[in-house]
Each structure stands twice: as C-alpha cells, then as structure tokens.
UniProtKB/TrEMBL annotation:
EC number: 2.7.7.59, 3.1.4.-
Encoding gene, per UniProt annotation: glnD
Family membership noted in the UniProt record: Belongs to the GlnD family.
Cofactor requirement: Mg(2+)
Domain notes: Has four distinct domains: an N-terminal nucleotidyltransferase (NT) domain responsible for UTase activity, a central HD domain that encodes UR activity, and two C-terminal ACT domains that seem to have a role in glutamine sensing.
Full protein name: Bifunctional uridylyltransferase/uridylyl-removing enzyme
UniProt-listed InterPro entries: ACT-like_dom_sf, ACT_dom, HD/PDEase_dom, HD_domain, NT_sf, PII_UdlTrfase/GS_AdlTrfase, Polymerase_NTP_transf_dom, UTase/UR
Organism of origin: Streptomyces halobius
Region (Disordered): 1-25
Ranges where the HD domain occurs: 448-549
Keyword set, alphabetical order: Hydrolase, Magnesium, Multifunctional enzyme, Nucleotidyltransferase, Repeat, Transferase
C-alpha cells in the first residue's frame, strides 16, 4: 500500500543531513531475520507475526536512539498497512508513519526521520514512509483513500503511545463518518483493479494481491467491516486469506523477490515449499481461496449498496412508512416457497426446506430466471436444513436444474452462491473432482467447473436450434466431467455422465443421448478441422458415432457452445463453417438411412374415451383433473421419450369448434397454470361429430391448483364469448410489467418441419416459456385459417418446444408457400 506524500530524503539526499549509526552488534537484526526466514519451525501466520515482532523491536530501538540524538519529543513510530496488521511476508515493504505533535522544528523532525529511514535502506529493505502530524495525517486521508485505508490498520511501534491512540481513534471516526461517500469509491477501485488484473480464481499466472479475490479484496472487506455499514460472510474467509498469504510467503522465499505474481515456472517450487503434491494442487488451493474471497466480496458489496440506498431515502419519506410496513420491503412471489425481497431471491415465510428437498433447485432456478442474486441467508438455510433428493431425482428437480442452466449469464452468480455453501457437490457428487481444477491449455479461459457452467450459459442461447433443450443443457454441464480422471476425459466422462443422468431421472433413451454427446463432444470440431470431408469414410464415421439426426442436432449446438465457452481462440467463422458443412453432410447421410424422428399417437385411454362421449352427448366441455399420484393407471407416456413432465394431468373434451386450443390455453393462463406438456387429438366417439380431446400436464405457478368446476365455468364463458381472454391476459401482463425479465431470452423460432408427416404440415415453435404463450400460438394459427389436427407441447426447463400438425380446411397438408406464410405469422405474433 502506497502512503507516502511527504517523504524525507533518502539515500543520495542532501549531504550532511544524516550521520551513519554505529555498526550493529554481531548478528543483530539482519542475522535474526535471516534465521527466522529459513527456520522450518515457524511458518505461515507464526512466521509473519514473528518477523513483525522482530522488526518492531529493531525499529523501536532505532527510534529511542534517534529521538535522543535529534532532541525531538512528542513523536511516535506507527506501522500501517500489512505491517500494521502484524503480517510481514519475507519481502514485504515496511509501511511506516513517523507521527509528531508539531512542537519540534522541521529540521529536527527531518533529522529524526533520517536516523530511522537510512538503516532500513542500508539493509536493502523496501520502505514506504511518511512524516506527518495527526492533523496532517487526517487531512491527507481525506484526500487519498489509500492513505485512509492504511490508517485503519495503524499500530503503535514506539514513542508516544497516546499520539498513536488518538490518531487511530480519529481515523476510525473519520472513516465511519465518511463511509457513505467513500465506500462507493472503494468499490470502484476494486472494480478497476479486477478489470486490470482479472479474476484470481481462473488465472494460470495469478497476481495474489491485485487480482479479484486476492489480498487487496481481503483488505477492502476489513475496511467495509470497520465502517459498521456491512460485513462480509465470515465462514472460511480468514482461512482463505491465510492461504493466500502463505502462498505469497513461499513465493517470496523461492524467488528471493518481492513479487505477488505466481508465474508458471515457479509454481512447482512453491508447491513443494508448501508441502503440496504438485503445481495443480497449488493452483486448485489458490483458486478455492480466491473463490471464497470473491463470493464474500460480492455479498458484501451488494449489502453495502442496499444499505446506502436505504440511507438515501429522505427522513420525511421514511417517516411516512408507518407501523408494520416501516423498514420492510415488498415481497413478490417468484416460485413456490421463493419470493423477491430487496433485490434478492429469498425463501418465503412458509417455506420448509427440511420437508421440500427440491426447494434448493427451485429457489436457484427462480433467482436465475429473474436475474436476482440468491440471498446468502437463504443459501445457508438451505444448506443446513434441506434433505437429500431421492434417487432418481423427481421430475420437478430435474426440470428446475434445467431451468437454472437455461437462465443465461445469470446462472453463474446463483451457481457460485450454491458452490459457496457446498450445495453443488451435495447435489452432484461427481462435481468435486472438477471443482477449481485448473486447465493449463492457454486456450482455456476458465477452470474446468466454471467452463462447464459457461458452456451451459452459451448453450442456453442455442436452445432454439434443438428439439431437446434439456438434453443440450445437461450435456453442456457434463461434457468435461471426466477431466482429472485417468485416460481420455471423453471416455471417462461418458461413464460418469451416464451415471449422473440416470441419477437425475432421465429415461434410458435420454441417458444414452447424453452419454453419446459427452463421449463425442469433440468429434465434430476435430473431424471438421483435421479430416477430409470429401472422403465418404469421414462422414460415415461421424454418422455411425452419433447414430441419429436428433443427436447430431444436439451435438452441433454443444460443439459451438463448448468452443465459445473455452475462449476467443477456440471458435471462429472459419471453424463454424467447417463444422456446419460436416453436419450438413452427416445429416444427409442419416436421412437416407434412418426413419425420421417423430411423435407417436397412442390410442385414447378409457378415461379419455369416456370424457369424449360425455362431451359429444352434452355438447359442452367436460374436464377431469388428476393429481400426479391419482393419475389413471393407463396414463400414456409423456412426449419426447417418456420424460415425465412436472405437474398434474388435466383432460378436456369439447365438441370441435374454431379456436378451442387458444381458448383452453388462455383459461389455463388466467388461472396461473403453467402448461408443461399437452397433446391434442380429434375423436368421433358416437358418430355425431368430432370432439377435441386435450391432454394437459399443468402445474400451479403459485399455491394450489384451482378446482375443476371453476376451470369448466371459465371455459364455457370463454367459448361463448362472455369472457374476454385477450383483454384479461393483457391486464395480467401489465401488472407484471414492473418485474421485467432480467435474462434476455433468445428470440422465438417458428419453422416448417419438412418430411415429418405425409398427411399434415408440421409447424414447430421453439420459444421462451411465458404466460399465455400457447394462447397466442393458438390464436395465430386460427387467424391463419388452418385446422390444428394435433398438437404436441412440451416445456423443457424455461423452453417451450411445440409441434402443431395443421391442415387446410379440406384436411390436406399445406402447400410449401402457404406453410411458410403460416410460420411467419406465428413468429410475428410471438415477437
């Protein structure tokens, strides 16, 4: 820490101002210092404290002799900065303040300073020094934030102790009084330093002091705590700081220099000095410490911002907040058991994490989707109270994990908050081996674990390109899970990914797809850049490896996400073009050999047939609502490979008429029901006209499900036109406008799927799941004048992937030109 503003003359100064002291006794401070640094007994904090005590005694003796010779009384020698904290690394600067009461003349004070500084320089020690009165020290601190921070660590060494004590008291009072203005300045300094030096927890050659998560940040957190406005999470903080200091000590001893940069060529020696296995173990330990400090800094600065915003409210306005509302923020629901409060996602008052093991993932997903940090208090409570998830995971847990991964950049801070309390490795035990694992390939920007999360972030922007976003995001999270294991990490990762996917509750077919994606996540880019694409064997080998068009589609997106998350050198337009060319060739070969993937239409169940007969007989809608544990025994498997969507089953049968799909979807949206999956088909059970049968899987957005009687009443009103659904939904959207989505979603994509059906035209919609989405799609199709023969809706995390089989009024597939126009119309309605 640089503090000098009024420096005295150093070596080479004005001749005659300094008389060299008598030679020290044999050995003395230099020999004692050398013995301490090379003695194996005291290490770490003990050695730093011992070195500080040794230096204290030496400097105290210097001041006693110098004060007598110069005739200056009313002076004190004060240690500031790291030395003030009693922590001296082998090559640390000595940060010293010569404090005087101003009674002596300037020449005598200068002579006293010379007698102090020159012996330090003569030993080759770095010195950061200043000479001031208490009033000058306080005035300089008001102008220079770094000086003010240094005074917070002021420690008396020798001389007039009352002078030092008075300055310390005044310095703390000044800091607390000025904190509302100075803390934002300190935060800006931390941000600027992070921009210049990067994040310690990811750098191959980190600066232990200046990088984000380093020792400077630890000092800043001490200053925030001294302001009494906020404090950092304490768990693990001191241990992390101590670990970085120990590493810096070893670095100083190995290099013999005052350096804070942990260079590659010195890491092995530093690791040996610390008794660690190798350089990777050193980096991993360093990254863990930096991660603890970074998380503490994030939490602390967020709290500082909240406190300062609250203090900025005028007293008269605060006075208007009377009674029980005073000082309490408004709670806005985010998900079951999760609310927004003061800019954070917190647990609702009624939340019971000990009874709700999925709450951890639900809270994380809700926070990330809303672009909010997850409250540290909530995370600690979840870590302490939440029970283990059953194996395999319930469908809701899997869905919430996918939703968290699909939230884009806001996934990262929420994931880090779970990491800070050990929740990630509790949920995914295989994560421990990749956590904080360095990647020595300079192409990589991140550690292995952060790279996996970043790949999921990148993949979230590509979900419109694939038919199964949930498989893409899961494979993105697991594609390098085999790193740190013996052998090829892709081969090891395939086995691990298969086990993890099974534990997450994916069915056998989906598990195979995820394992294939992990095994071959490097296949496309390596083949495209290293093989002759005109060689039939090249394309054939890739086709054999992926096995199907759906897997190829997912692998293409995963390849791009992986490269983008690696670093700027890993992806380019040239590489992207080569990979796209390879994918096109492989897709062509697969299309000639494989049956096109499509959805099967099962025979109606007995329950569905009964409802259809009742609707045809009465001429009105008939509903049946089944909680999950009361679903009919002959319940048909869910779409997309049998993956069980979250929610309960809702069956609706209604005589066929225009707009039924849009009307039914609108009624569900009004009742705050989220459609997780749906299937629409037409039956003619008694030969008197078609009946539409809608099989839905729905979940309540908040609270409990509505009664089937209320749903039917609103459906009747909507069908006869007495309930204006568009107006009611628009009113709902306006009410939610104040909570605008913080995560920018990829734009919707509506396409015509060629060759999927010979009897209908298939319109595919991939969009962000949102309130009333299915209602808007249904209205757009109705306005296009097409008939919806069947619809297959699935919600995968935060993504809706819907397929609508449409025909013209005569029941024939649409001509290509009209099909494209219908797709454009639906996309326009969604945009």
């Amino acid at each position: 820490m640089t503090e000098s503003v009024e420096e005295t003359a150093g070596p080479g100064g004005v001749p005659g101002q300094y008389t060299a002291p008598a030679p020290a006794p044999e050995g003395g401070y230099p020999a004692a210092r050398l013995r301490l640094l090379h003695d194996d007994a005291p290490t770490g904090p003990d050695r730093r404290a011992g070195l500080a005590r040794l230096t204290d005694a030496w400097l105290g003796a210097l001041l006693a002799g110098a004060a007598g010779a110069s005739g200056v009384h009313g002076a004190a020698l004060v240690a500031v900065g790291g030395y003030g904290r009693g922590e001296l690394s082998p090559r640390s600067d000595l940060d010293l303040l010569l404090l005087h009461d101003g009674s002596a003349d300037a020449g005598a004070v200068a002579a006293l300073a010379d007698r102090l500084w020159y012996p330090v320089w003569d030993l080759g020690l770095e010195l950061d020094h200043s000479v001031r009165t208490p009033a000058e020290a306080r005035a300089t601190a008001r102008e220079d934030l770094k000086v003010q921070l240094g005074l917070l660590d002021a420690r008396h060494l020798a001389g007039d102790a009352d002078l030092t004590a008075a300055l310390r008291t005044a310095a703390y009072a000044d800091w607390r009084a000025a904190a509302p203005k100075r803390l934002p300045e300190l935060h800006d300094l931390c941000q600027d330093r992070a921009d210049r030096h990067g994040e310690l927890q990811y750098l191959l050659e980190p600066d232990l002091k200046e990088a984000r998560g380093g020792l400077r940040d630890a000092t800043a957190l001490r200053a925030v705590a001294a302001s009494w406005l906020a404090d950092a999470p304490r768990d693990g903080l001191e241990a992390a700081r101590t670990r970085l200091l120990d590493t810096r000590d070893a670095l100083h001893l190995v290099t013999g220099r005052a350096t804070d940069r942990l260079s590659l060529q010195e890491q092995t020696q530093v690791a040996e000095a610390l008794g660690l296995l190798d350089a990777d173990a050193l980096l991993r330990q360093t990254y863990e410490a930096a991660r603890t400090l970074s998380y503490a800094a994030d939490v602390t600065w967020r709290e500082v911002g909240r406190v300062l915003r609250a203090r900025s409210v005028k007293p008269t306005l605060r006075g208007l907040l009377s009674g029980r509302t005073a000082g309490k923020g408004e709670r806005s629901p985010l998900a079951e058991g999760v609310v927004e409060l003061d800019g954070e996602a917190v647990l609702a008052r009624t939340a019971r994490p000990e009874r709700d093991p999925v709450l951890v993932l639900r809270a994380a997903a809700a926070a990330a989707q809303a672009g909010l940090p997850l409250s540290p208090h909530a995370v600690r409570r979840l870590a302490a109270a939440a029970g283990p998830l059953p194996v395999p995971w319930p469908a809701e847990a899997r869905e919430q994990l996918v939703t968290l991964l699909g939230a884009g950049p806001h996934t990262v801070p929420v994931w880090e908050s779970l990491e800070a309390e050990g929740l990630i490795t509790r949920l995914l035990p295989d994560w421990e081996r990749v956590r904080c694992r360095p990647q020595r390939n300079p192409v990589h920007t991140w550690t292995v674990d952060r790279h996996l999360v970043e790949t999921a972030v990148r993949a979230s922007a590509l979900t419109r390109r694939v038919h199964r976003p949930d498989l893409l995001l899961t494979a993105a999270l697991l594609h390098d899970i085999g790193k740190g294991r013996p052998g090829d990490h892709s081969v090891a990762g395939e086995t691990i990914a298969r086990d993890v996917a099974t534990r997450l509750g994916f069915d056998a077919r989906d598990v195979t797809v995820i394992a294939t994606l992990v095994r071959h996540h490097l296949l496309l880019v390596e083949t495209a850049t290293r093989r002759d694409l005109d060689d039939p064997e090249t394309v054939g080998a890739v086709a054999d490896a992926v096995g199907g068009a759906g897997t190829l589609e997912l692998l293409h997106a995963l390849t791009e996400a992986d490269a983008l998350a690696t670093g700027p050198a890993a992806w380019s337009a040239w590489r992207g073009g080569l990979v796209a060319d390879l994918v096109k060739r492989v897709a062509a070969q697969l299309a000639g050999e494989a049956v096109p993937e499509g959805r099967t239409t099962d025979e109606p169940t007995a329950e569905q047939e009964r409802l259809a007969i009742e609707a045809a007989r009465t001429g009105g809608p008939v509903l049946a609502l089944h909680p999950r544990d009361e679903a009919p025994a002959d319940d048909a498997p869910a779409p997309d490979g049998g993956q069980e969507p979250v929610g309960v089953e809702l069956l609706i049968a209604v005589p066929d008429q225009p707009g039924v799909l849009a009307v039914a979807a609108g009624v569900l949206a009004l009742h705050r029901l989220t459609v997780r999956a749906a299937d629409l088909r037409t039956l003619d059970p008694i030969g008197e006209g078609p009946v539409l049968l809608l099989s839905w899987r729905v979940a309540a957005e908040y609270g409990s499900l509505p009664q089937a009687v209320r749903l039917r009443a609103d459906l009747v009103r909507a069908l006869d036109g007495s309930l204006d659904i568009p107006a009611r939904l628009a009113e709902r959207e306006r009410a939610y406008a104040r909570r605008a989505r913080a995560v920018p979603a990829p734009p919707p994509r509506v396409t015509v799927a060629p060759g999927t059906s010979r009897t209908a035209t298939v319109i595919e919609v991939r969009a962000q799941d949102a309130h009333g989405l299915l209602h808007r799609i249904g209205r757009a199709l109705e306005e296009a004048g097409v008939s919806v023969r069947s619809a297959h809706i699935s919600t995968l995390g935060a993504n809706a992937v819907d397929a609508f089989y449409v025909t013209d009024t005569e029941g024939a597939p649409l001509p290509a030109e009209r099909a494209a126009a219908v797709a454009r119309g639906v996309q326009s309605a969604l945009e």
